[in-house]
Each structure stands twice: as structure tokens, then as C-alpha cells.
Amino acid sequence: MTLLLASVRSPEEARIGLEAGADLIDLKEPALGALGAVDPRTAQRVVALVDGRVPVSATVGDLGGRDARLPEVAAALVEAGVDILKVGCFDAHAAEAIETLSRRHPGQAVVAVAFAEDPWRELPLARFMASEVRLLMLDTREKGTGSLLTKLAVNELSALGAATAAQGLALGLAGGLTLADLPQVLALGPAVVGLRGALCDGAREGGLSVGRMAAARAAVPRQTAAGKQRRWRHDFVA
């Protein structure tokens, strides 16, 4: 079964996602880039709103692995109470940065985010696994230039899924996906499917739509509460 991740930018949007039955609430500020980070105060308010009902993830921004801001941003989000940090593979130092964050925040779940525009065969999957990463999210770096399915062929996505599974990692898929893309994406069997623009009225910087969120939830088969918790805890936060 596939978990539905809804990317939100505010408590108001988080409430829409939560009430529609999103399996994961993902904090992201779309106006600040592919993985724009929300303000820590916003993260704290969303964590309080969700109140442990589903995991809350948060992106740390479009920051390279040696960006001096990365440790500070990550620490602020951890302090805000997010369950999962999402760190982008923006350069060759991403694995090193994830290893450092894992040492600084032991027990904190970290998700590595790779991009379809980059050569996925060069991803340091074994290093991610050694850093206690359990989920690799594949996204798109350049927004508005086509969805994930226009940038990688289905056979390439299947090959990446096999490569991640061989390293003990789960694979999530995101990146400009539309509601019409969901049947094809779900057929690939990802652990997580992440949506933002498909949930909004207008572009991905628009507001989350109650109707679109409900349509996405209807398109992604819901897991039982017990199965959802068991899969998340075992596969991604071990």
C-alpha cells in the first residue's frame, strides 16, 4: 500500500490535509524553491495541530550539503517537534550532511530527497542506509517544467525502485504529479506518493483545495490505522 503525503505551508492547509485523511503532513514553502523551508514557528503550530495523529515532515530548504545554514535550520525544525527532516541531494555532499545531522540528532528520522533531473544511478544509497535513512523521495528540482513522469520513463522509475529496495530503502515519488497521474504512479508501488500542486487551486503556490484533497484521498487507497503505523515505523524510522 502507498501512503499519501500532502505538502502544506500553514496550519490552515494542514487542517485540510488532516481532515481529508492524509497519511503524512509535509511542511514546505513553495515560494522558496523546490524544498523551501517553512518558518519554525509555523512548524511548531502545525505539529501542535496534528497532535501526533500522523507524522509531520519538514523540508530544510534548497541548501547544499555544506551550506552553513543547514545545521541551524534542521535544529530549529527538530526543536519545533517535526517527526521527519527532508534533506535534498543538491550536491555531492548531501550524504555527508545527512550523516552529520543523524549524529547531531540521534533518533531523528531523516528522508533524503533526490531529483529526477540528476543522474539517479550516482546516488549514494548505501550511505543513506548507514545514516538511518529509510525513505528516498524522488522529486523534481525544476518546477513548472513537467512532472516526474515526463522527466523519467516508467522503466527508469522501476529500476530506481529496485535499486533502493536492494539497499533496504523505501522509495517515494513526487514532483508535479497530477491527479490523472496517480493510477500510473500507484502501479509502480511506491511507499509514498507526494502531492502539492495537484492539491491546490491554481499553481503549487496557490491554496490547498478541500475538493482536490478529497479527490486525491479517494484515488490513493487508504491503509488501516494499524497497517499505516506499522509500515511507517518499520520501514522509515527503524
What is the CATH topology?
A: TIM Barrel
Portion of residues within helices: 25-40%
How far apart lie the N and C ends? 19 Å
Determine the CATH superfamily.
Aldolase class I
Q: What is the ordering of alpha helices and beta strands? A: EHEHEHEHEHEHHEHEHH
Rounded mean pLDDT is: 92
Work out the strand percent: 15-25%
Order of strands side by side in the largest beta sheet? 1-2-3-4-5-6-7-8
Derived from helix and strand composition plus strand pairing, the structural class reads alpha/beta
How many separate structural domains? 1
Question: How can the largest sheet be summarized?
Answer: 8 strands, parallel, barrel
Number of helices: 10
Cα gyration radius (Å): 16 Å
Instruction: Give the overall shape, derived from the CA principal axes.
Output: globular
CATH architecture: Alpha-Beta Barrel
Q: Give the strand tally.
A: 8
Q: Kindly provide the name of the CATH class.
A: Alpha Beta
Characterise this structure.
The chain is of the alpha/beta class. The protein has a single domain (3-236), classed as TIM Barrel (Alpha-Beta Barrel), CATH 3.20.20. It is built from ten helices and eight strands. It has helices at 11-20, 40-50, 70-80, 94-104, 125-130, 148-151, 154-166, 182-186, 210-219, 225-236; strands spanning 3-8, 24-27, 56-59, 84-88, 109-115, 135-139, 170-173, 192-195. The chain has an eight-stranded parallel beta barrel, surrounded by seven helices. Helix 1 runs parallel beside helix 2 and helix 2 (40-50) packs parallel to helix 3 (70-80). Residues 229-238 have low confidence and may be disordered.
